[in-house]
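In this section we walk through a basic example: taking a raw amino acid sequence and producing a predicted 3D structure, encoded as discrete structure tokens. The instruction is simple. Fold the sequence below.
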Amino acid sequence: MDPAMWVAKTGLDAQQSRINVISNNLANVNTTGFKRSRAVFEDLIYQTVRQPGGSSSQDTELPSGLMMGTGVRTVATQKLYQQGNTMQTGNSLDLAVVGRGFLQVL
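The resulting token sequence is shown next.
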């Protein structure tokens, strides 16, 4: 596959993952206790096209070299554990944790 097409494909795949995470967040926005997520990305390996100090033309040199990226990938879907909104339900068995912490269910 053409390298430019590969970089474009990896970018499209990563953005599709991001859209999937966002759509899941939107679909569950009214679900009690739902914590939103976000997609985490990283660069793929860079290829060195010209070494640092190599010549770029007849009289000039590239001080930092020339590197070409090979794309991006989705590394993880990270849960965001931020404080949510609390609301009165009127049910004496409902609990909420305000601040940092979790309830352990045994």
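Looking at the output, two observations stand out. The chain has a mean pLDDT of 86. The helical segments are 3-27. In the next section we compare this with other chains.
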